[in-house]
Design goal:
The structure is a single chain. By secondary structure, the protein is an alpha/beta fold. The chain contains 9 helices and 8 strands. It has helices at about 1-10, 55-65, 80-95, 110-115, 140-165, 170-180, 185-190, 200-245, 250-265; strands spanning about 15-20, 25-35, 70-80, 95-105, 120, 125-130, 180-185, 195. Strands 1, 2, 3, 4, 5, 6, 7 and 8 form an 8-stranded mixed β-sheet that branches. A hairpin with a 2-residue loop joins strand 1 and strand 2 (about 25-35). The chain is elongated, with a radius of gyration of 32 Å.
Length: about 270
Amino acid sequence: MKNFREACASIDFNPKVELVEENGKEKLYLYGSIVEEVPIDWWTGEEMSGDYITMDKVKEAFNQIKGKDVEIHLNSKGGDVYASVAIGNYIKDSNKHVTIVIDAIAASGGSIIAMAGDEIKMYPNSLMMIHRASAMVYGNCESLRKFADDLEKFDKAVLASYSEHFKGEERELEKLIKDETYLTAEECITLGFADAIIEKPKEEIVQEEVSVKNSLLEKYKITNQEEKKLEVKNESKNLLNKFKKGESIWQWELMILVSIRQKLKMH
């Protein structure tokens, strides 16, 4: 669990809400923190720099979608539960066929938005995290008790977001949420939180492996040939040097014949 959390915390985000068209397919990228509205800088009173996932931005992007199908690429560690539920319901109620692709992680509110897809896909190294609602609060004992009761109602709302996809029983889902569970792509498939894992076709993988193997073989084949040529050249040079020093012709010829015989044995 600790390793999962560390991996999620280390994910680098390039926050954005962006609609693009690639190969005739409309894709909406939802990257970053989910908020009700853009945060305001307390010192300047101005909106804080950076992009955030908000309902207004999602609506604006959906209004620009031309076709009936859209592929939403999601990468979010979560954020505001109100905004997450609202955005998820908006996507679900749209007249679009929505495919959700989890590019890296859909955690907390991000996983709630993921559940809005007609089809949910993940990469082999994508992650999902589900947990109970949490918040920071200030107040007296009565207000804190009330807030705790309110949070339990949020837990029921969160439960409802996942229950449509979950294959098990409600009490099992409650336990997963309570335990703050991190899930791999394969685990999401098993539990019903995802429909498919995006992988390269086997033929393409095999072709890549063959290409790498062939390039390595060719590289070291050439290297070996060059080493053999250098070895023969050095032997010839040594024989000539010995001949120049006065060794008899028959000794020189014998050494050449022995060298050639050794080479033939090697082949």
